[in-house]
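Notebook B, p. 112. Complex prediction, attempt 2.
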Amino acid sequence: MLVHHIRTALAVLFACWMTSCVKDVDLDQAGNITLQPEIQADLLIFEIDQKEFTEPKTNIFSNVIRDTVRLEFLDDSYIQNDLAKVEFSFRYRNSFPQSFANKISFLSEQDNLQHQVEFITEAGSMGNPSITEVIEVIETENIDVIKRSIKMVVEIEALTNDKPFLGILRFESKGLFSFQF
Amino acid sequence: MKFFVTLCSIFLMILCQGQNKQLLYNVNGLPQTLMENPGANIAFDRHIGVPFLSKISLLAGSSGVNIHDIFDNSNANINQRVANTIRRLSSRDYFMAQEQLEILSFGWKLNKDNYISTGIYQEMDAFAYFPKDPAILVSQGNKDYINIPFDFSHVSFTGEVLTVYHVGLNRKLNRQVTVGARIKMYSGIFNVESVNNTGTFLTISTPDGPNYYRQFADNLDVRVNTSGFASLQDNNKTVQEASRELIGRSFFGGNIGAGLDMGGTFRVKDNVVVSGSILDLGLMWQREDVESYTYKGTYQTDGIEPLFPGIGTDGETFRYWDEFEDEVDRNLVDKTLREPYVTWRPMKFNAAVEMTFGESYLPCDYRVEAKKQYHSKVGMHLFGIRRPRDIKYALSTYYDRKLGSNLRMKVSYTLDDFSYTNIGLLLSTNFKSFNFYLAADNLLGYANLAQSNYQSVQMGFQFIIIK
């Protein structure tokens, strides 16, 4: 009798194994899985004083200076294929008693302007530098302007006045890059 | 007393995790028990397995997540479930898969006390801890983890495919003690491992400058060793050539290793037996077709610093980015190496105590000196397996019952990392000397495999001769 029960159990075990099933799942959802990391990354920094506005060879004052940095990573496949949104943050700390007109431009390889941010940095003082912060969001519908860019140009124009041109201008910048892989 | 029981339960739940073949351990009528304990008590005189079918063992487990957790069809937001799962899992959670296929298996009694068993089997073993921090970094980024380090020591995994040639001796020293040992030669087919990694990636907020954040890669030392993969990446190789190479590796054409199993059984009292074994105490020398990838160093950055004016004498802009990349490459060195390495096999141990009861009444024959025999056993079995960061345990209790000479049943309940409701069943049946056995763990999981964290099955066909 017991042997009979065991043979039945063996059959049940086999049946259990053979009829085991995968229920209440939809494996087709695998195609909808996306990774959406948001990466905070530093971009450019600098700290300049009045000397940077004087041409060293000629000693001639120029109220506009600029520099260009290639951001080679903008050409990488993860940016080109998967970047969904960018939020740039730019912050100036100004102890000059003058204001500055700032222009941050994103250029393509052929130097075509793709995107530009313009703002004024308020005048400050040595003991109390002014802080100007600008946040520029490039939404998904405009993200191609960043994908087409490879250079970041920082241009600073000193808006001179009758006060001595003396101080320190600090620049901080970062990007919050949102991806959809 | 209640407190004591609760404490013991908590201790067992913490302790007991792992993956084992408790259903085949101490089954004295099956030759496979010698693979779990070469010093097991056995009750047969000769065996020969049906080639490729004497033992097929499949086992897969995930300690923290199952298919239903991710692909639940009652909720459409799969990305939220993936995010919740990553958040819930810890770096101690793990995934594993094992497969064993006996190619040849046979054994015979040399004399009254000695039994020799030998054979060849192929094995695959893959194990990975959940790389919690790298998974968060890849899936969520660092935005919500400012001032919180991402730990790369969470990356820890091993995988291997190999063929094992073995010969073992089981020796009955006296009525109380049986000991055994098995020598193994390993022939490696594939190996991959990344263990003992170190280093963190950290983004800290720097409100006092010089930038919004400072990013650190601190003491990074990540290494992935491989053997058997590099040559297969040759695009000019045909499928036939690749197959021939893989078969060649199974016959010591690739990397080799050696190991030892040891075990013993001690009859404490007439109906109380303790036993234990250590398996796969061995290593592999990975020398052929090896390739290792390393990423090492320390670096920190606040961003790229332009030097006004940005135009050089040649009218070109300064190559700030190239300089930045060069500096990163100097400090975080990425190398591909072709140097031998040694891997330890995942050593396992078993320990059990069992009590026999229920005397079997043999046909009365005054010419035969019959020993007292029992048809039932209850026991407790502790299994452990060494993994890169710790030992995984499983604790089982079992009831083993012989039903005449042709049928045997073993029921087990196992506490491990995968389930607290793991009920296993072994059924072994003989038709004359032909034996078939089937063992399956976590039977409740078969109702819906998607909600199961662990399943294992072992089955085989063989001839077992009892004189």
